[in-house]
Recover the amino acids of this structure.
């Protein structure tokens, strides 16, 4: 690490970093990691990149049980918020989508993400971290934190690069924030060859699982970022925020003015069996009151929208990150599909790479919403503890990180025409504006104290203006 401290960020330096970080050994792309849905139109182009996952473990009875449970709850207590519905559908311990469904990832699952496309994505994210780390002139212990790590593919690729820079077990530790015990086990298999230890209640530990990588790097799992030790941290969130539960509000005009009404999930009595429908609240809900008081006069956020999807859990995570970076140092990178406040209706469901009715057969399909980067930036910066750069398109970011050069180096070490085409197609999926290149965006986060330094004398690669 000392060999790169103090160097300026330019294309020549990035090429040097890539040369030092990247192995000439091609890694066959048979991984199936994914935590959030993305780029469904690109599936056909990369379907040969990953092998199928084991068969789906939950059965129809499990899903019916969830539908019946939700139906009974609404009958007893009244309509529920969209956020409550999302939380149950995705994370219900006995029947939630991420809690029970094995075949979620890859071409045989319901969606696919950037780390699945190939090794270039994770390598360039790691190189970006190395490049930004040297600006801190920091030589202490580093926590590499990932929010929602899926099956661990991105972390696996990043560790391979970081270890080549001397960030080994003596300096680096990995901390994974994952709510699903089901996915925690999958991550343990990938990163630690299944050699993990589950903590028990009487151990009074903040982490729920721990293990070691083959290189001896310690890995710990947590269910909330507030449980991760307060130290210098590099935080990565790849398609994490899109699945956090959202509240949906619609602006209703009346003779007395306008008011925000919340969209709720209610029973659909016109259909047989447990069936659901969206309704608009007839009166104010606790969340609509809070939303109206906090944001009704914030024109920069609402931009005259009459429908807003906002996650208060996103706000909690954002405030936690800002406080952490301000007090203990570090930086972060958010990668997700989303918009900058110009969309109003993005809540949807995907099953087997196709749109699916989000209220039908809850627990059988993924629920997702585009990340509102305008709200995310506001939440991160509202207490002036952090500042953000971006969002920028994924294609432009990867090109700024010398992605084309890395692709060329991989093509030069194989004569297999089929695999060469897979590499080319994969990079096209990542960078083409019609695929992932523009739909996916990146947002960088730094302590507010570094704002002037990074905006003037030492600009952040990939986010230069």
């Amino acid at each position: 690490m000392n060999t790169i401290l103090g160097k300026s960020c330019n294309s020549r330096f990035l090429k040097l970093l890539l040369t030092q970080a990247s192995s000439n050994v091609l890694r066959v792309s048979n991984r199936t990691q994914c935590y959030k849905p993305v780029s469904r139109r690109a599936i056909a182009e990369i379907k040969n990149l990953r092998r199928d996952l084991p068969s789906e473990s939950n059965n129809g009875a499990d899903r019916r049980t969830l539908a019946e449970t939700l139906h009974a709850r609404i009958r007893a207590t009244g309509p529920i918020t969209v956020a409550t519905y999302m939380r149950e559908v995705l994370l219900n311990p006995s029947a939630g989508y991420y809690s029970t469904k094995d075949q979620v990832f890859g071409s045989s699952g319901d969606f696919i993400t950037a780390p699945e496309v190939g090794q270039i994505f994770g390598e360039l994210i790691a190189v970006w971290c190395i490049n930004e780390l040297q600006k801190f002139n920091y030589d202490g212990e580093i926590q590499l934190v990932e929010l929602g790590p899926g099956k661990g593919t991105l972390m696996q690729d990043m560790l391979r690069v970081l270890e080549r820079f001397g960030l080994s077990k003596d300096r680096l530790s990995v901390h994974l924030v994952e709510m699903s015990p089901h996915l925690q086990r999958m991550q343990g298999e990938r990163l630690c060859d299944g050699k993990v230890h589950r903590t028990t209640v009487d151990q009074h530990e903040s982490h729920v699982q721990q293990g070691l990588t083959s290189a001896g790097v310690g890995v710990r799992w947590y269910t909330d970022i507030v449980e991760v030790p307060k130290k210098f941290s590099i935080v990565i969130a790849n398609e994490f925020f899109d699945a956090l539960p959202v509240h949906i509000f619609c602006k209703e005009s009346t003779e007395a003015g306008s008011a925000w009404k919340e969209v709720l999930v209610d029973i659909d009595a016109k259909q047989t069996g447990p069936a659901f429908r969206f309704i608009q609240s007839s009166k104010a809900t606790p969340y609509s009151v809070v939303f109206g008081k906090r944001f009704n006069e914030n024109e920069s956020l609402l931009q005259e929208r009459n429908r807003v999807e906002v996650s208060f859990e996103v706000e909690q995570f954002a405030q936690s990150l800002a406080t952490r970076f301000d007090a203990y140092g570090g930086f972060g990178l958010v990668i997700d599909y989303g918009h900058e406040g110009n969309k109003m209706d993005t809540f949807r469901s995907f099953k087997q790479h196709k749109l699916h009715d989000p209220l039908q057969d809850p627990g059988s399909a993924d629920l997702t919403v585009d990340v509102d980067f305008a709200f995310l930036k506001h939440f991160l910066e509202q207490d002036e503890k952090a500042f953000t750069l971006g969002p920028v398109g994924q294609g432009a970011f990867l090109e700024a990180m010398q992605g084309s050069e890395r692709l060329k180096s991989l093509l030069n070490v194989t004569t297999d025409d089929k695999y060469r085409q897979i590499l080319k197609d994969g990079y096209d999926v990542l960078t083409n504006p019609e695929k992932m290149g523009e739909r996916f965006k990146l947002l960088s986060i730094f302590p507010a104290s570094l704002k002037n330094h990074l905006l003037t004398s030492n600009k952040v690669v990939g986010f230069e203006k």
Q: What stands out?
A: The longest helix spans residues 60-77.
